[in-house]
Amino acid sequence: MNIENTKAQMRKGVLEFCILSVLKEKDAYTSEILDTLKNAKLLVVEGTIYPLLTRLKNDGLLNYRWEESTSGPPRKYYGLTEIGQTFLTELSSTWTELSDAVNLITNQKN
Where are the transmembrane segments (predicted)? Predict the structure, then answer.
């Protein structure tokens, strides 16, 4: 069994939740989102995040706006929609339940 494949699948499973959580407090452009994820040791490449941001936008969870940049082309800032806020609240609840269950199982003494 390939441990790297399993680890990658685990990361992919929480990536959507993490991106929505990054945008919970304030709008951000893609580089900021990537930096936040990388600083948390959740390694994500641009080729993964752009399609995911597009899918989240198409699902009505995110919106975006263009903002002029002083150091280059305009930047696309993503933010949560009202539906996205509700979705994130549900994911947070599910994450807590799942995390508690996994911790209970993996921390049991034999």
Answer: none
- pLDDT tens, residue by residue, 3-24: 988 887 888 889 999 999 999 9
Residues whose CB falls within 8 Å of the CB of residue 66, separated by 6 or more in sequence, listed in order: 74, 75, 76, 77
Beta bridge partners of 79: 63
Q: With left for phi above 0 and alpha for psi between -120 and 50, is residue 60 left, alpha or beta? A: left
CATH number of 13-107: 1.10.10.10
- pTM beyond cutoff 0.85: yes
Give the residue extent of every domain in the chain: 13-107
**How far is 45 from 23, CA to CA, in rounded Å?**
18
Distance, in Å, from the CA atom of 23 to the CA atom of 98, rounded to the nearest integer, reads 22
Tell me: the pLDDT tens digits for 46-61?
Answer: 888 999 999 999 999 9
Please provide the size of the chain in residues: 110
